[in-house]
Design brief:
HIT family, subunit A; binds adenosine monophosphate; five-stranded antiparallel β-sheet; alpha+beta; 30% helix; 155 residues; 5 strands
Length: 155
């Protein structure tokens, strides 16, 4: 994974042993839905709502301020693509994209990531990073999103 400091920087050093770095190296499991040369998308293991998906760059950035703009563009392209698939897969009238920078903002994993969360009128989300989901359910949700991505690639 490359690392290059750009205009801004986070208040902490990048830790190569954070859980998302381990997922990128294949040292920790993940329910992957999409991967290309620059990005990876996988299910959030403690989803705030069904379909909660994360997109990360394959670049060692703690937060938004550390990511070169080219990588940011590549990451946002994946966010847009996966968001569309999540919207279809979960028949979501709304999609919320969230991204937290620093502990004071609630960031708990210090490798930059974007949250993609389906939203529905009157349906509240669960608490942030609280309860582990059933892996069989997560796997089924990942499959639904992968199917939508495959359809949009061929359609
Ligand atoms: P944040 O608090 O914005 O840093 O978000 C970190 C997110 O990562 C939380 O929503 C967690 O549920 C999620 N998370 C933590 N560990 C894992 C993991 N091993 N696989 C997938 N998601 C994870």
């Amino acid at each position: 994974m490359s690392r290059l400091l750009v205009g801004g920087s986070a208040d902490m050093a990048y830790d190569n042993n954070n859980i998302f770095a381990k997922i990128l190296r294949g040292e920790a499991p993940a329910f992957k839905v999409f991967e290309d040369d620059h990005t990876l998308a996988f299910m959030d293991v403690m989803p705030q709502i069904a379909g909660h998906t994360l997109v990360i760059p394959k670049f060692a950035a703690v937060d938004l301020h550390e990511l070169p703009v080219v990588s940011l563009a590549q990451t946002m392209a994946t966010v847009q693509r996966v968001s569309g698939a999540v919207k279809q897969a979960f028949s979501a009238p709304g999609i919320m994209i969230a991204q937290l920078n620093g502990p004071a903002a609630g960031q708990t994993v210090f490798h930059l990531h974007f949250h993609i969360m389906p939203r529905y009128e009157g349906l509240e989300m669960g608490m942030h990073a609280r309860e582990m989901a059933d892996f069989a359910v997560l796997n089924e949700h990942a499959e639904r999103i992968r199917e939508q991505l495959a359809q949009s690639a061929t359609g």
